[in-house]
């Protein structure tokens, strides 16, 4: 039987301890422990799947990405900060963005926010939006038929325009208005029907008698009164 020398024994013993220590450290590092912060300042956060697929980005304006499709980014200027959503393939499919500032003339620009969700491989199909700056003043909910590429056709709009009119627009598959319900800022309501060419064919509006409705035919036919009952 061969007896180890003290030096050789110590060398083997040291090696075994080193291997055991390394295994312990590596095993412990594979366990992810949550970290709690009372406050954190960050310019951008990327949420990814275990394989690295991007699923969500929270970012300031400067680092908000362009349009990302299947993990590849295409330059696209956005004047806002916000939160962007990505599908299982790493393609953008909606987001919550917001902004607002004064330009060097003191004018309010890019003021507002929008929450949208996109159709797979196409543009947004539903959008909640509010804008109030030097160029636009409106707010509402939009439902859209989003086809391939940039081909979109709005089907429903419920909102308020710059003049204060509250509107419900119902469009056909071509995006043409067919029914328009409005209540103007002064409280006067109307219900309009349009043909496929965008021409008004019938407008319903109340007259001086609150219990009756007056129907105005656009073809200049005589007015008739119909009881709502």
Quick synopsis:
The chain is 10% helix and 47% strand. The protein has 229 residues and is mainly beta.
What does this structure look like?
This protein has 229 residues and is mostly beta strands. It has a domain at 163-229. The protein has 1 helix and 16 strands. The protein has one helix spanning 6-29, and strands at 44-48, 54-59, 67-69, 72-74, 81-86, 92-102, 108-118, 124-132, 137-146, 152-160, 166-171, 177-183, 189-194, 200-206, 213-217, 224-226. It has a 14-stranded antiparallel beta sheet, with no helix packed on it. A two-stranded antiparallel sheet has the order 3-4. The protein starts with 5 loop residues before the first helix and ends with a strand. The model is unreliable at 208-213 and 219-229 (pLDDT under 50).
Notable characteristics:
mainly beta, 14-stranded antiparallel β-sheet, two-stranded antiparallel ribbon, 16 strands, disordered C terminus
Please tell me how large the radius of gyration is.
31 Å
Shape: elongated
Average pLDDT works out at 83
Uncertain parts? 208-213, 219-229
Write the layout of secondary structure elements.
Blueprint: H1 6-29, E1 44-48, E2 54-59, E3 67-69, E4 72-74, E5 81-86, E6 92-102, E7 108-118, E8 124-132, E9 137-146, E10 152-160, E11 166-171, E12 177-183, E13 189-194, E14 200-206, E15 213-217, E16 224-226
Antiparallel strand pairs: 1-2, 2-5, 3-4, 5-6, 6-7, 7-8, 8-9, 9-10, 10-11, 11-12, 12-13, 13-14, 14-15, 15-16
């Amino acid at each position: 039987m061969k007896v180890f020398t003290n030096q050789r024994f110590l060398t083997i013993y040291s090696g075994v301890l080193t291997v055991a220590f390394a295994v312990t450290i590596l095993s412990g590092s594979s366990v992810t422990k949550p970290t709690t912060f009372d406050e954190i300042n960050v310019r951008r956060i990327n949420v990814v799947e275990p394989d690295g697929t991007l699923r969500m980005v929270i970012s300031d304006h400067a680092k908000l990405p362009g349009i990302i499709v299947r993990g590849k980014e295409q330059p696209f200027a956005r004047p806002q900060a916000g939160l962007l959503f990505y599908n299982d393939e790493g393609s953008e499919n909606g987001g919550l963005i917001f902004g607002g500032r004064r330009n060097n003339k003191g004018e309010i620009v890019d003021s507002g926010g929008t929450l949208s969700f996109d159709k797979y491989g196409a543009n947004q199909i539903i959008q909640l939006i509010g804008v109030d700056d030097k160029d636009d003043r409106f707010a509402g909910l939009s439902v859209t038929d989003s086809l391939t590429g940039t081909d979109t056709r709005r089907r429903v709009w419920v909102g308020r325009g710059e003049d204060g009119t509250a509107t419900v627009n119902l469009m056909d598959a071509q995006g043409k208005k067919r029914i328009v319900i409005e209540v103007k800022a002064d409280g006067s309501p109307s219900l309009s029907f349009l043909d496929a060419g965008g021409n008004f064919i019938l407008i319903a509006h109340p007259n001086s008698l609150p219990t009756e409705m007056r129907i105005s035919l656009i073809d200049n036919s005589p007015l008739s009164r119909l009881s709502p009952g």
